Give the backbone structure.
Amino acid sequence: MTVSTSLELDPFKLAKSLSGLNFIAGEFRPAMSGKTFDVRNPATGEKVATAPFSERADVDAAVKAAKAAQKEWAKLPARNRGKLVAECGRVLADHVEELGRLLALETGKALRTESRVEAGVLADMFVFFGGLASELKGETVPFHPDMMTMTVREPVGVVGAIIPWNVPLLLMAMKAAAALVAGNAVVVKSAEEAPLTVLRVTQIMNKVLPPGLFSILAGFGPECGAPLVEHVDVKKVTFTGSVETGKIVYKAAAEKLIPVTLELGGKSPMIVCADADMEKAVAGAIAGMRFTRQGQSCTASSRIFVHESIHDEFVRKVQEKVNSMVMGDPLDEKTDIGTIISDGQFDRVHSYIKLGRETKGATEIALSAMPTDPKLEKGFFVQPRIFTGVTNDDRIAREEIFGPVCCVIKWTDFDGVIEAANDSDYGLGATIWTTNLKMAMDATRRLEAGFVQVNQNLVVQPNLSYGGVKASGLGKEASLESMLEHFTHKKTIIINML
Ligand code: NAI
Ligand code: MG
């Protein structure tokens, strides 16, 4: 089966051409059973492609090819591997527009504000990790003058990577780029809601990489994800998704005694102090809530604690700004906000909006405007919502919604707000907004989170370790340390020269 790697800027055509296929052992293949499932455009509900319903036999084929390819790959000098991975990044950079459009089509994330940006970061992540190859260094240890004692970093073997649908390109890149440079082979299981763009990425990367080293399977959790985790030749699993599924993956990995990295979401606090730069804080709240991504982000600043003295002004300004954002066709350049990914997530978000309405003392504010184009009438569009008058004990302030719904909570006492910010099962991101350096420093020390920012709300960046504490997960991604800790093991060698 062949699909051209020439640029294809019509995402509908590209989706069709990728229909029903996995990329295994250097080639496109349908699932062995021949079974498929539908891929829909969330902006219209229309079917745009199918994807293979992969099962254990498909997983076996991908892992077998990966195991064989990994042996040769690990023998290459590290810099040669790095050069090839960086080359993947450069080739992918030529496809940013194409990948952005396909991603917008299958996920409903607006092309201009989200999907094109993500495709750019994907390419950058491969270039970044490719450059780190020479840093796969060990140490010499002063153990004994007549014994040359050293450590070396070795790859773990075949890595199973399970990714979700919200930022599939970035999340795949953080896992795959690091694992490959470190000398591993990678088998990815894509999310059932977004199998197409990552498949295209895999095809493009296979122009550069040896066959079998990097494969991708589409399918569902129990039938495809679970056999990948359980496979005897998979020696490491890296997972991003829900806490519930993360625990299942962790247990299955424990049975095999293999290491796992888990990135599991959050309910990240944003603390706005009375002396904060109001305009910056308002822009930071909108960026932090990822309203342009319909709030579908693990680091979404979904609990915003605002000092009582500026609360009403802050809410009014957020409201004004989000009201001026355009919700509509994700592929339209004018669109700021696209759709929710699927009917299931759409219903889940609405169940939380209902919960917000039923929360004692809460006031609902609906923002922006629904699209009016009749073509989009079946799309999963949701007006962003703010709930004010909420307390940190309310369910709506405690559970991850993964939609454009945020809670704004008033505060007066600094110690009290830090305590409330930390009173959460999660600990992924946290931000504080103040012009008082002492308060800022104090908060950065006391906030229980993996990624704490003062007066800004940046997303994941290459070279910055990213990952949470508490129920937000285990381990870090996106940095040199993450590559060394999670995709290599350290071997100690002693050469006795006596
Ligand atoms: P999920 O955690 O069930 O799915 C993530 C990935 O895991 C998908 O590829 C899925 O097929 C796979 N998977 C599911 N069951 C599996 C199993 N038994 N073994 C191996 N792999 C399995 O998340 P889902 O259902 O897409 O979303 C539900 C909620 O999870 C969201 O509303 C959100 O709260 C949270 N979530 C968090 C994400 C994050 O970035 N941390 C990303 C996606 C979802
Ligand atoms: Mg699930």
Remarks:
- The first strand starts at residue 22 and ends at 24.
- The mean pLDDT is 98.
